[in-house]
From TrEMBL:
Belongs to the ACBP family. The lineage of its organism: Eukaryota, Fungi, Dikarya, Basidiomycota, Agaricomycotina. One of its GO terms (biological process) is fatty acid metabolic process. This is Acyl-CoA-binding protein. Keywords: Lipid-binding. GO terms for molecular function: fatty-acyl-CoA binding. Coiled coil: none annotated. It comes from Lentinus brumalis. It comes from the Eukaryota.
Amino acid sequence: MSKAKFDKAVAIVQSLPKEGPIKPTQDEQLFFYKYYKQATVGDVNTSRPGMLDFVGKAKWDAWKGVEGTSTEDAYAKYVEKLIEILKRADTEESKKYIAEIEAA
């Protein structure tokens, strides 16, 4: 998977409106987060957040769970998940996004 496809997928995910027709679930958002961090930072390099930071802990645990994943594999998983969500949405907008990713 190319960095260009990954970068295009990241731009699409970040541009999705919160209440739009293409809406990743919380689990899917966490999936994007962990593979984005793994692709751009690598293995977890921070300590686990404190007991009351539930969101921070969930994000950290998700990222820790993909430790050892290569940058290339993280790119691929991120892009494949977005394409899966876009195909499920089956809108004109989602088809346009798929074409943009494939052209990158």
